[in-house]
Amino acid sequence: MAQPAEAIKKQSYDGVDDLVVVKNLKKYFPITGGVFSRIVGFVKAVDDVSFTIKPGETLGMVGESGCGKTTTGRVLLRLLEATEGSVEFEGKDIFSLDREDMRRVRRDMQIVFQDPYASLNPRMTVGDIIGEPLEIHRVAKGKEKDDRVRGLLETVGLRGMHARRYPHEFSGGQRQRIGVARALALNPKLIVCDEPVSALDVSIQSQVLNLLEDLQQEFDLTYLFIAHDLSVVRHISDRVAVMYLGQLVELAEQDELYENPAHPYTQALLSAIPIADPEIQRTRKRIVLEGDVPSPSNPPSGCHFRTRCQHAMPKCAEEKPPWQDIGDEHYVACWLHEE
Fold first, then answer.
1. Which of 24, 84, 231, 296 is deepest in the core (most CB within 10 A)?
2. Long-range residue pairs from 137-145, CB within 8 A, at least 24 positions apart, any chain
3. E strand or H helix at 53, and its extent?
4. Cα 174 from chain centroid?
5. Collapsing DSSP states into helix, strand and coil, what is residue 277?
């Protein structure tokens, strides 16, 4: 039987400065109407987003439901085709690759889905689910594949004998571990974690987060960690990007962002995080956002957040705020920080 650590190998990035470079990424979904289903508008799910991910780091991406986090992750992996922009992975523009070249690159880019109940085929055994990518990419078959599957299961804290069971025989936390094992099967460099703990009980969330951290340290993995829970993101991320209505509004090192939030939206999100100390909790000022999130099919002009911002100025409606560094690689898109 394969030992757990033998199932995957520690990554080597060959001196790459940025593993992922996303530039001006846009993803618009068409809205059709009328008898002939003509296009009458677009849902601007991702609207001009740029960021980088360094080798071996975890970039957390947070925001309200519907802000475009998941779409960004899926376009980055080219599970969805972009409307505009580019994504470079190890210096290659993945949008320019043909099907066969993209298939080779996809071995290095994997995803852990949000719902552990919907992401596993109920008609396949766990061994078949984890072994499928090994067969598709012609990495292993037969006994070698079975040994690697058992090793992967042990790597994520399960037992090799579980390969013969079906998904319905496992709890939510165990299913998510199976999803992690499937993502690790091809020895990837980048894993997009799409809200991997949001469907789990709080007690199980910490176990899965600790597993992801242990795997990252052992195999030098790189994560894009998508979530809406700011306390979870702080626990696992090196840098944090805040997203609102399809756009990034702030990006900084984890401690810098949580201790010195610069954008009014980030400040409002952080003010909603409960603190265990009742004395501090009583003296905190809660920032309550007025109104509802605008429709991504018709976002506000200028700054998308201006309709809910207590600091909004006339200039906010006229022009989109620039993406600027306010010090120590702390980036923000807000006219309050205009130089």
1. 296
2. 137/103, 137/107, 137/186, 139/185, 139/186
3. strand 38-53
4. 21
5. coil
Q: What radius of gyration, in Å, describes the C-alpha atoms of the chain? A: 21
Q: At what angle do helices 172-184 and 142-155 cross, to 10 degrees?
A: 130
Smallest CA-to-CA distance from 252 within 181, 330, 339 is with 330
Model confidence, pTM: 0.90
Could you give the percent of the chain with pLDDT greater than 70? 92
The residue type found at 42 is F
Of 57, 58, 86, 80, which is closest to residue 68 (Cα–Cα)?
80
pLDDT band at residue 231 using 50, 70 and 90 as cut-offs: confident
Amino acid at 26: K
Q: Which two tokens stand for residue 175?
A: 């299913």
pLDDT at 12: 61
Q: Rounded to whole angstroms, how far apart are CA atoms 289 and 122?
A: 42
Q: Judge residue 223's burial from the number of C-beta atoms within 10 Å of its C-beta, 0-12 exposed, 13-18 middle, 19 or more buried.
A: buried
| Two tokens, residue 33 | 């109407």
Given a cut of 80, whether residue 132 has pLDDT beyond it is yes
Confidence of residue 5 (pLDDT cuts 50, 70, 90): very low
Sign of the CA dihedral running 221, 326, 66, 73: negative
Tell me how far apart the alpha carbons of residues 332 and 205 are, in angstroms, rounded to a whole number: 30
Q: Give me the residue label for tokens 């409002």.
A: 268
pLDDT per residue as tens digits for the range 253-294: 999 999 999 999 999 998 877 766 666 656 667 777 888 889
